[in-house]
Design brief:
By secondary structure, this protein is an alpha+beta fold. It has helices at residues 14-25, 28-31, 70-87, 89-98, 131-141; strands at residues 2-8, 36-44, 47-56, 59-67, 107-112, 118-123, 128-129, 145-150, 156-161, 167-170.
Length: 177
């Protein structure tokens, strides 16, 4: 697995990079050494925060933990990603084995305008997929919504989890009503 380490407002020591590589090697059995992982280290309010994102076959696995030490946060993230993989193993098994892997998607920027309004920008790989695949991606990422291109219509759509536990789909229309 190709591993990229990122330090947010810090330099990541070599021993932490080696520890992350050793722990992530445990997940190689699921990705056949072809997945891409991004490990982001940061410190905030005397806590150490670690985010792990693994991209394989256009599928993202993501976990984020804030602990007293990076070692504890890494253990928690690896466990969370393993749970995600086991949960979706039957759905993903064939796709992960049979398709190519892509570069890591998420990149975060903080931008401030004149009014001190903070805007967080996120970029991601945009591929055509079915509504069911989009819901699966949303669940894997642990998000409330997911933006995707509908493979059937080519429209940019949004799936979201409703408060009643069901899913919603937002489809654009050119008509002005």
């Amino acid at each position: 697995m190709k591993i990229t380490t990122v330090g947010r407002q810090m330099t990541v020591p070599e021993d932490l990079k080696e520890l992350a590589a050793k722990k992530l090697a445990k997940l190689d059995k699921y990705f056949f050494n072809e997945g891409d992982a991004t490990v982001t280290f940061s410190r905030k309010h005397n806590k150490e925060r670690l985010e792990v994102t693994i991209s394989a076959s256009n599928t993202l696995f993501r976990a984020e933990a804030e602990e007293e030490t990076f070692r504890d946060a890494l253990d928690r993230d690896i466990d969370a990603i393993e749970r995600q993989i086991r949960k979706f193993k039957t759905r993903l098994g064939k796709r992960v084995r049979d398709t190519a892997f892509v570069e890591p998607d998420p990149a975060f920027d903080s931008v401030e305008d004149e009014k001190e309004l903070k805007i967080h920008k996120k970029t991601f790989y945009f591929k055509p997929m079915s509504v069911e695949e989009a819901i699966m991606q949303m669940e894997l990422l642990g998000h409330d919504f997911y933006v995707f291109e509908d493979s059937a219509t080519g429209d940019t759509c949004v799936v979201y989890e409703r408060r009643d536990g069901e899913y919603g789909l937002i489809v654009p229309t050119a008509e002005d009503k």
